[in-house]
Amino acid sequence: MDVDDIETIAVLGAGNMGHGIAEVAALAGFDVHLRDIKEEFVQKGYDQLEWSLNKLAEKEQIGEAEAEAALDRVTPIVDLEEAVEDADFVVEAVPEKMDIKKNVYRELEQHAPDEAVFATNTSSLSVTELSEVTDRPERFCGMHFFNPPVRMQLVEVISGAHTDPEVLDLTEDLAEAMGKTPVRVRKDSPGFIVNRVLVPLLNEAAWLVEDDVATIAEVDSTTKYDIGLPMGAFELADQVGVDVSYDVLDYMQGVLGDAYEPCPLLVEKVEAEKLGKKTGEGFYDYDDGGADVPT
Ligand code: 3HC
Predict the structure, then answer these.
(1) Which residues fall in a coiled-coil region (predicted)?
(2) Are residues 240 and 125 in the same domain?
(3) What are the tens digits of pLDDT across the range 134-180?
(4) Which of 71, 151, 225 to mutate to test the pocket of ligand 1 (most atoms within 8 A of CB)?
(5) Which residues constitute the domain of residue 153?
């Protein structure tokens, strides 16, 4: 299969990442089926996608006609079979739990065309392990976007142990067709490249506050103005979702050892469901005009 053969992309999961990936695909001219398990979830993702397109048009980063055309290419769907039966490429962005993802792949395998490629947007989980619950581990890879997908240039394309190199080439071509810059991750390893580097940084920032070495504001001004990240460490944790950072660390701890133990400060936020922008509060409060992204 060539990238020109890809017409319809199914995006499974309409959350923070799923709706953003669907937006990127629609802007690139693909027909997109945005699927989630409940009407309210898929509608929320669709509304966020529409908000984002309008925001880009308002800022003249895209034209109004382009925004409208992209939105027209997106079909929100709840029924999995309907979402994937004519898909050429499936990007899965469901919650970062191995069991949930495996169940989705088992069901997906029953309905997707044999030639369709499955790509997981997992942040850290084993691509190989996920691929092995399907009948097409050679047509399975990681395609990891960054938050927010419409603004972030990089896409990690991850090889599982069974991935056909042609599928990696195709996925990189697709990322380029979406206007992104793919980087190949040659070996399936927890956190891949970016999260292996970034998430321990977010964890260390949390330990500094936990140990009373510095306040959140002090850490963030340091990471932003001295280290040169586009956001402070805690702003970034709120951007990606504190639960996502926690899940990545938890998985890395299990595979790589206790150096990756999540800081209690992250655990507390997850338990309190203060997950960042998406819940209106994380390390910062967004209900007070801090974030205008709808939650
Ligand atoms: N769509 C459209 N507009 C959006 C948006 C979206 N999805 N999200 C935010 N915006 C808007 C904001 O509402 C704001 O609008 P306003 O000016 O009207 O208030 C505007 O974008 C801010 O954009 P600016 O260009 O003015 O601001 P920045 O220069 O700060 O850029 C940013 C914003 C691109 C998000 C930048 O801060 C950035 O790069 N942050 C780091 C993000 C990052 O590192 N992400 C990767 C994290 S790791 C990850 O995702 C992996 C995962 O597996 C954990």
Answers:
(1) none
(2) no
(3) 999 999 999 999 999 999 999 999 999 999 999 999 999 999 999 99
(4) 151
(5) 3-185
Query: How far does residue 28's CA lie from ligand 1's centre (Å)?
Result: 19
* Distance between Cα 24 and ligand 1 center (Å): 14
Task: Look up the ipTM and state it.
Answer: 0.95
Task: Give distance in angstroms: CA of 277 to centre of ligand 1.
Answer: 11
**Is 32 part of a structural domain of the chain?**
yes
**pLDDT-derived band at 288, boundaries 50, 70, 90:** low
pLDDT tens track for 19-76: 999 999 999 999 999 999 999 999 999 999 999 999 999 999 999 999 999 999 999 9
Tell me the CA–centroid distance for residue 238 and ligand 1, in Å.
11
Q: Which DSSP helix (H) or strand (E) runs through 74? A: strand 74-77
Q: Please determine, for residue 258, whether its predicted confidence score (pLDDT) is greater than 90.
A: yes
Q: What angle do CA 243, 249, 254 make, to 5 degrees?
A: 125
Kind and range of the H or E element at 201?
A: helix 194-210
Residue 284: inside a domain: no
Q: Return d(Cα 291, Cα 180) in angstroms, integer.
A: 25
CB 92 within 8 A of CB 119: yes
Ligand 1 neighbour 244 (Cβ under 6 A) = yes
Ligand 1 site, residue 52, Cβ cutoff 6 A: yes
Q: Which positions ≥6 away from 43 have C-beta within 8 Å?
A: 76
Q: At 164, which CATH number?
A: 3.40.50.720
Ligand 1 pocket residue status of 122, Cβ below 6 Å: no
Residues 235-258, mean pLDDT to the nearest whole number: 96
Q: Is ligand 1 within 6 A of the CB of residue 187?
A: no
